[in-house]
């Protein structure tokens, strides 16, 4: 309640200052909530989050990760295709953004970039996220290796686990970068299998979003058949959600980073 009262006081002070006519008009990123991120009902002493809150939270997450500048610089303009498949991938990503409003509530509302290391999968994924941010569409960035570790570390604490995993389950759009990075091991027979703890956590996230028709942007070094082989339940859900928006890069000649370095 104290927090709500503080928010209310700031809003009231802002209103008084703006109505006095003696101060220069303040410019806000969000004119709806005056950058408070909450819409406060003084009469009923309640508050609800403004639509800008998720976008600003996303920006703060990126800022705290230490990759802000590089992240924000990844866009469609500076992704330069070096062959037909990277050109097709860029075209698919741009088309996905263009028609997102019409497909966001459908089953096939997600997109996946899979395969060859360095092919530009993360670049295109982030370019999509940045376009969404410009339109006030909230995106939660999940750097798979680091974030899944954080989820697994609190798995035995029900409250902490729910708080952590719900960030990814309930995001408007979830960007999973490098799905299954360092999440597999070799059996004695030589088969590559997904770690049980990773399987439980990612299934909970994907399954929840599957039934909620909640969009995902996915990048992974694994191809779609690999993802299905690791766990059919997870893999088939991802396949269905990304149907029509899956591109697979195969072959070192598609290493986009190598071309940029030459």
Please describe what this structure looks like.
The protein has 262 residues and is α/β, with parallel strands linked by helices. Helices cover 50% and strands 15% of the residues. The chain folds into two domains: 2-49, no CATH class; 54-261, 3-Layer(aba) Sandwich (Rossmann fold), CATH 3.40.50. It has a five-stranded parallel sheet with strand order 4-5-8-3-9, sandwiched between helices. Strands 1-2 form a two-stranded antiparallel ribbon. A two-stranded antiparallel ribbon has the order 6-7. α4 packs parallel to α6. The N and C termini lie far apart (58 Å). The mean pLDDT is 84.
Whole-angstrom Rg = 21 Å
User: What would CATH call the class of the largest domain?
Assistant: Alpha Beta
Note the quaternary state here.
single chain
In one word, what is the shape? globular
Percent helix, as a range, is: 40-55%
Class of secondary structure makeup: alpha/beta
Distance between the termini: 58 Å
Count of helical stretches: 12
Largest sheet: 5 strands, parallel
Give the SSE string.
Answer: HEEHHHHEHEHHEEEHEHHEH
Strand and helix layout:
Layout: H1 2-19, E1 38-41, E2 46-49, H2 52-65, H3 68-72, H4 84-98, H5 100-103, E3 111-115, H6 121-134, E4 139-143, H7 144-153, H8 158-169, E5 173-177, E6 184-186, E7 192-194, H9 196-212, E8 216-220, H10 224-230, H11 232-241, E9 246-249, H12 256-261
Parallel strand pairs: 3-8, 3-9, 4-5, 5-8
Antiparallel strand pairs: 1-2, 6-7
